[in-house]
Automatic annotation (TrEMBL):
Residues 510-592 form the 3-hydroxyacyl-CoA dehydrogenase C-terminal domain. CDD domains: crotonase-like. In the central section; belongs to the 3-hydroxyacyl-CoA dehydrogenase family. It catalyses: a (3S)-3-hydroxyacyl-CoA + NAD(+) = a 3-oxoacyl-CoA + NADH + H(+). The keyword Oxidoreductase applies. Keywords: Fatty acid metabolism, Lipid degradation, Lipid metabolism, Lyase, Multifunctional enzyme, NAD, Oxidoreductase. The lineage of its organism: Bacteria, Bacillati, Actinomycetota, Actinomycetes, Streptosporangiales. This is 3-hydroxyacyl-CoA dehydrogenase. InterPro entries: 3-OHacyl-CoA_DH_NAD-bd, 3HC_DH_C, 6-PGluconate_DH-like_C_sf, 6PGD_dom2, ClpP/crotonase-like_dom_sf, Enoyl-CoA_hydra/iso, FA_oxidation_alpha_subunit, NAD(P)-bd_dom_sf. It comes from Planobispora longispora. It comes from the Bacteria.
Length: 688
């Protein structure tokens, strides 16, 4: 019934070979999970892979000569879960239910054999891959494993092949919920092998070089009784409080917008008392429900954007045109500039020099970078030698002459056109003719900025998002004069920085800031008109956005928000207003409308009172969504980006727009706001 959905499956085969264990411990049937490709194409499970594992277990289950069964992955990969391409094609609940049952029927056998089973986690273990290991009696893990995770809630699913039932009993409900809910909702955070061992997911940890050999030796000692693995009974813990606390945090973050984490929470709660059959059946039912929902399709659409489109940016020039960058200059030594300097040094491993007109400010910027390097060393993320090299790479200079041999110079100075033009004139006077000049402007015209340059073709927009090291998006802006070599170099640098780059036309505020300003502008206008601030600020809670509009304003700062709104008002006065109350908030020196304890600041709230035409929360939501639909439509007509998918990619990576929404355009399609639709029916939604 479901094989047709997975006709393009790259089958992960379960290959069995006998291994004689040391110390005379007997014979182990070692099953290797391998899809026939190298580590760049990780092993996944569709019907073919699950059937292969089931057949391998058939072959070993009846053997009386075995002392144990082991499972290991191909080099660098254990397994990374279900084949989601086929799952996205499910159109009937019976098909969805069959997928859940097929996984359970195969995996659970590892925990129900007549001999002990061992999972040797030699590489990345995610989703169903981690669940395979959880079904085994014992687990070892390599210290070099880069990723251990249950990312299903990130995509709109639950760990449906045993994860919600087995993990809480193994490491306790609180730790389990970190992997099942908290980490996926934190931009799909992964943990490493060492962390998994500390949590108790694995019983033993060995270095990667001789991992399998040491794991087999350890397994032999367990079988001989020389090593005893003790486990904690977590059923006596206060699961009720843990679940209640987790539900409270979910409500604060999602406001019920995404069903998957709530279903996962219910399943973890069930794990305390349910039998294996009851728990696994509940997982099947949850998986079937969620496979039929819009959130999964939206999550998979988001995942495809991040994993595929972001790696092949639409409109990017030929990579061969990119120039080599052997030294980077950063104009400015403030926080943003210092963050950029650290990132360039870490990723490019080339000299980076900051300049500023003030010695105190310059020294502070360099000191910040060095302090951050020391923090990385203190956390064990880099070695002492690496720390020393990084600190030696980042220096400061009071003159721009230090840029004479730089290949890439980026400015991060005050957001004022005249200031930036002056900076680039000074830089152009000392750098080579092939040096790329980049601006981190968030809203100003690139073309105007380069209008007085001798070589405006080498000016490019390179817009980071704060914090620089964390936010994955890089808006790369092409001015009217920017040439292909400059653009190719910018994209090459972006890749080296491990950023996802999107090509954007030189248009006011580009993509993210333009849409966020329109979004926030509608909410602020509603408050100016008399809508209670709390009503307007929470009107869009049902979308599950990472923060409310006024919380976002607090993060970016009212002065920055006001400046961007003024820039956009100058360009599009009919759609972008400038709030007099916002200007008053800035003049009052307020950091926002919230006090340090996150309560509303009465003085700030008073600034926004006085309007006489209040709206309901539904009216605020409606006007905001319609404004976003209009602005996106105009941006696509203007060619600001190549397609609606690029708008969604920018909002996901630059604004933290939830994966379960699929970006902004699929949500507007599903909500019936976009007419005509931005995407074809069935894209990021259940097929009609």
């Amino acid at each position: 019934m479901i094989n047709e959905l997975f006709k393009d499956e790259v089958v992960t085969k379960a290959i069995v070979r006998d291994v004689e264990l040391p110390y005379g411990a007997g014979t182990m049937a070692l099953i290797t999970l391998d899809n026939g490709f190298d580590h760049t194409k990780p092993s996944t499970f569709g019907p073919g892979g699950l059937t292969s594992l089931d057949e391998a277990l058939d072959a070993v289950a009846g053997r009386s000569d075995l002392a144990a069964v082991g499972v290991v992955g191909k080099p660098f990969i254990f397994a990374v879960g279900a084949d989601l391409k086929g799952a996205a094609l499910v159109s009937e609940r019976e098909q969805a239910l069959a997928i859940g049952k097929l996984g359970h029927d195969a995996f659970r056998r590892l925990g129900e054999l007549s001999v002990p089973s061992f999972a040797f986690v030699n590489g990345a273990a995610m989703g169903g891959g981690l669940e395979v290991a959880l079904h085994c009696t014992y687990r070892t893990i390599s210290s070099g494993v880069p990723a251990v995770a249950l990312p299903e809630c990130f995509l709109g699913l639950v760990p449906g092949w045993g994860g919600t039932q087995l993990l809480p009993r193994l490491i306790g409900p609180a730790n389990a919920l970190k992997l099942i809910i908290e980490n996926p909702l934190a931009q799909n955070r992964m943990i490493k092998g060492r962390d998994a061992f500390k949590l108790g997911i694995a019983d033993a940890m060995f270095e990667g070089a001789d991992f399998l050999e040491e794991s087999l030796r350890w397994a032999a000692q367990v079988l001989r009784g020389e090593v005893t693995v003790s486990r904690t009974d977590h059923t006596a813990e206060d699961w009720s409080k843990t679940i209640a606390d987790a539900r409270f945090l979910l409500d604060m973050k999602l406001h019920g917008a995404n069903p998957a984490p709530y279903r996962a929470l219910e399943l973890v709660e069930l794990a305390r008392t349910a039998s294996r059959d009851e728990g696994f059946d509940a997982e099947d039912q949850a998986l079937a429900d969620l496979l039929m929902g819009d959130e999964l399709r939206a999550g998979l659409y988001s995942f495809d954007l991040v994993q595929r489109r972001a790696k092949r940016p639409a409109g990017a020039p030929d990579k061969a045109l990119a120039r080599k960058v052997t030294k980077v200059g950063v104009v400015g030594a403030g926080l943003m500039a210092s963050q950029m300097a650290l990132l360039f040094a870490r990723r490019l491993e080339v000299p980076v020099v900051l300049t500023d007109l003030d010695r105190t400010r310059l020294d502070k910027g360099v000191a910040y970078v060095h302090a951050e390097v020391d923090k990385l060393h203190g956390k064990g993320r880099i070695s002492g030698d690496q720390a020393n090299r990084l600190k030696a790479l980042v220096t400061g200079s009071l003159t721009k002459d230090a840029f004479a041999d730089a290949d890439f110079v980026i400015e991060a100075v005050f957001e004022d056109m005249k200031v930036k033009q002056k900076v680039f004139a000074e830089v152009e006077a000392v750098v080579s003719e092939t040096c790329v000049l980049a601006t981190n402007t968030s809203s100003l015209s690139l073309t105007e900025m380069g209008s007085e340059l001798k070589h405006p073709e080498r000016l490019v927009g390179f817009h980071f998002f704060n914090p620089v090291a964390v936010m994955p998006l890089l808006e790369i802006i092409r001015g009217h004069a920017t040439d292909d070599a400059t653009l190719a170099t910018a994209f090459a640098v972006g890749r080296s920085l491990k950023k996802s780059s999107v090509l954007v036309k030189d248009a006011p505020a580009f993509v993210v800031n333009r849409l966020l300003t329109r979004f926030m502008g509608e909410v602020i206008t509603a408050v100016d008109e008399g809508t209670p601030l709390e009503v307007a600020d929470h009107a869009l809670d049902g979308l599950g956005l990472p923060m409310t509009p006024f919380a976002l304003l607090q993060l970016v700062g009212p002065a920055v928000g006001l400046h961007v709104s003024e820039t956009l008002h100058a360009a599009f006065p009919d759609r972008f207003g400038v709030s007099e109350n916002m200007a008053e908030l800035v003049a009052a020196g307020k950091p926002g409308v919230y006090a340090p304890d996150f309560s509303l600041d009465p003085e700030a709230v008073a600034i926004f009172s006085g309007g006489t035409s209040p709206s309901t929360a539904e009216q605020v939501r409606e006007r905001t969504l319609r404004a976003l639909e209009q602005e996106i439509r105009i941006m696509l007509e203007e060619g600001v980006v190549a397609a609606a998918q690029d708008i969604d990619l920018c909002m996901i990576l630059g604004a933290g727009w939830p994966f379960h929404l699929g970006g902004i355009t699929p949500y507007l399609d599903r909500a019936g706001v976009a007419r005509p639709r931005f995407l074809e029916p069935g894209v990021a939604s259940v097929p009609a």
